């Protein structure tokens, strides 16, 4: 069984922006909002040099790391080729205008 925790209202996350949630077990988790109001959650650390993904630019369903421009898929955490690597993804969902996270 999955435990979901209410994080915030969708409107608390800017369109094409993010919000960081502190987790003692998993470190910082970035919750992203796309232009289509989809929500995704990734470990807030680029697999390349540890850049804060929450400060990256969102385009479509990808975020670009602000340090070295690596692109990471929001739904899987996989880095887009030609680079390689993965940022841990977490389950996130939207219910009645509220964002929930499962770690």
From TrEMBL:
GN (gene name): nirD
Keyword set includes Nucleotidyltransferase: no
Gene3D superfamilies attached to this UniProt entry: Rieske [2Fe-2S] iron-sulphur domain (2.102.10.10)
Record-annotated Rieske domain positions: 5-101
Record has Transmembrane as a keyword: no
Transmembrane segments: none
Origin organism lineage: Bacteria, Pseudomonadati, Pseudomonadota, Betaproteobacteria, Rhodocyclales
Keyword terms: 2Fe-2S, Iron, Iron-sulfur, Metal-binding, Nitrate assimilation, Oxidoreductase
Name of the protein described by the UniProt record: Nitrite reductase small subunit NirD
InterPro entries for this protein: Rieske-like_NirD, Rieske_2Fe-2S, Rieske_2Fe-2S_sf
């Amino acid at each position: 069984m999955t435990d979901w925790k209410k994080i915030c209202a969708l409107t608390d996350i800017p369109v094409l922006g993010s919000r960081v949630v502190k987790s003692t077990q998993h470190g910082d988790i970035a919750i992203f909002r796309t232009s289509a109001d989809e929500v995704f959650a990734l470990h807030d650390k680029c697999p390349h040099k540890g850049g804060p993904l929450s400060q990256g630019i969102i385009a479509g369903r990808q975020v670009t790391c602000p340090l070295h421009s690596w692109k990471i898929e929001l739904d899987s955490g996989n880095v887009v080729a030609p680079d390689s690597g993965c940022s841990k993804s977490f389950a996130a969902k939207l219910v009645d205008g509220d964002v929930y996270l499962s770690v």
